[in-house]
């Protein structure tokens, strides 16, 4: 799209009905993260944050085989990543951290190493039956640079995280769901429709409250329980200034009807 100043066609961005769908688009290379693709992804995430038409972001990979297999190893042999691209201050992690809108990773195939890291930087992961996860950093002689060593243990627990990172073994989609890594596993042709339904459910909520909830939950990953509770209290008090008591009755009725419909 013209409003997203991207290089080449390694990344596609589509905005429809308030949902920004970002597609890693190097299927012949298993969506390996070339320098161009990394730059494009950072640009797109920042542009989506600034786009008032977008309320939720879905990240996925092109093709039927891979979400992303991580860094482009052929490119790294001639143009290695610099230290500025690694760690919490890296442009990639900063772009994810700055995104206050909910993010959904639609894992359509292999999510390996750096691709696995992109996935766990998203708020919710949904997998197709073809999805496979692996942290192969130790096998290629690299340390994770975009949060996998920390986020993975928060998602699946330290023992399972150590197992995955210390062995490089692959994790299938059903086991990933059983371990709490992904929300659901569906047939490949149902993956994006399900993610869009989840996104539309999010869009039906109050946008400002969603931003606050995302901030509270994500901040809690980096804080003690007491610190997280303090932030939650601050956000709860701040939201009172924008709370519309006049519309509360209508909103409550909508919530009740929705509950009855989902229970039917």
From TrEMBL:
EC number: 4.2.1.17
Keywords: Lyase
GO molecular function annotations of the record: enoyl-CoA hydratase activity
Keyword Lyase included in the entry's annotation: yes
NCBIfam families, per the entry: PRK06190.1
Family to which the UniProt record says this protein belongs: Belongs to the enoyl-CoA hydratase/isomerase family.
Protein name: Enoyl-CoA hydratase
Organism: Variovorax ginsengisoli
